[in-house]
Specification:
The protein is an alpha/beta fold. It folds into two domains: 228 residues, Alpha-Beta Complex (Spore Coat Polysaccharide Biosynthesis Protein SpsA, Chain A); 52 residues. It is built from eleven helices and eleven strands. Strands 1, 2, 3, 4, 5, 6, 8, 10 and 11 form a nine-stranded mixed β-sheet that branches. It has a two-stranded antiparallel ribbon with strand order 7-9. Helix 10 runs antiparallel to helix 11. The longest helix has 27 residues.
């Protein structure tokens, strides 16, 4: 496919579910970004009911739309975009992001300058300008105990969480990391051809950790770069189905641990019990907020 469309530098793959306004702003940032790199954009709509599939062709005729009839999950939809792409790189991008002017050019230059990198993640910030911890170390059981539960604010400086989030580092320089967020993840074509696409057994959550781990196992680097700086609103799709998101996220966590770190049956049972106890705590906190009528944004689920 690359040989057929050799002129394309970057294929941008965006999976969307009921976030048309966010998607519109994201696409506008790409096409108005004065990028010199040649790129294509492929949007996979996972059965949205907000009119995305009808509005997108009318406003962005240059975008290739793959309209699923139902929600196939994030990893499966990303793979649809990758399979339809022809660029030297495939940039998986969430629809609730804004790419700065020239952002694709910066990312492309960095990737071309680091041929050993199979996966590259740019700096992500929240809309208020604060840093997102979008590159992390591989998860540990101790970090999972605190991350996202009522214990985290009780012990805000927990060493295991700081280690996992890499919050002891200012994220102001290039660095080799364990994994980067799938919200903005540049994949080298050679890596995809070597290890395959995302694991579709992950419906939502941990598919990015799994892919980066497989890249490491195949001898590639995973790199973080502070430029470009991409705004990411976080969770615009997942907040529409919070309880389901809690379940899917924890299923992804179990899939990750059982696939890579707990292949012995006995340890799988222990991990299974721990993960679903963790899910119960998260779901309980969500239910309490609902009963109390909390208007706060839903917390970002742990990974």
């Amino acid at each position: 496919m690359v040989s057929q469309i050799a002129a394309i530098d970057v294929s941008v793959g965006i999976v969307s579910w009921n976030v048309w306004e966010d998607l519109r702003a994201c696409l506008a940032s790409l096409f108005d970004g004065n990028n010199q790199a040649s790129f294509e954009v492929i949007v996979v709509d996972n059965g949205s009911s907000d009119g995305t599939a009808s509005q997108l062709p009318a406003e962005f005729s240059q975008v290739e739309l793959i309209a699923n009839q139902d929600n196939r999950g994030f990893a499966a939809a990303c793979n649809q975009a990758i399979a339809a792409s022809g660029g030297r790189y495939c940039f998986l991008l969430n629809p609730d992001t804004i790419v700065p002017e020239g952002g694709l050019d910066e990312l492309l230059r960095f990737a071309d300058d680091h041929p050993q990198a199979g996966v590259i993640g740019p700096r992500l910030i929240y809309p208020d300008g604060s840093l997102q911890y979008s590159c992390r170390r591989f998860p540990t059981v101790s970090a999972a105990v605190f991350r996202g539960t009522f214990l985290e604010p009780l012990i805000p400086g927990a060493k295991s969480v700081r280690y996992y989030l890499m919050s002891d580092w200012d994220h102001a320089e290039d660095r080799a990391v364990d994994w980067v967020s799938g919200a903005a993840m540049l994949l080298r074509r050679g890596l995809i051809e070597q290890i395959g696409m995302l694991d579709e057994d992950f419906f939502w959550g941990s598919e990015d950790v799994d892919f980066c781990l497989r890249a490491h196992q195949a001898g590639w680097q995973v790199l973080y770069t502070p430029s470009p700086e991409i705004v990411h609103a976080v969770g615009r799709s997942s907040q529409q189905a919070e309880l389901r998101n809690i379940i899917d996220t924890h299923r992804g966590m179990y899939r990750l641990y059982s696939k890579h770190w707990s292949r012995w049956l006995g340890s799988r049972w222990v991990i299974w019990l721990g993960i679903w106890l963790h899910a119960a705590v998260i779901a309980g906190q969500w239910l309490v907020r609902r009963l109390l009528g909390s208007t706060e944004d839903s917390q970002q689920l742990p990974e």
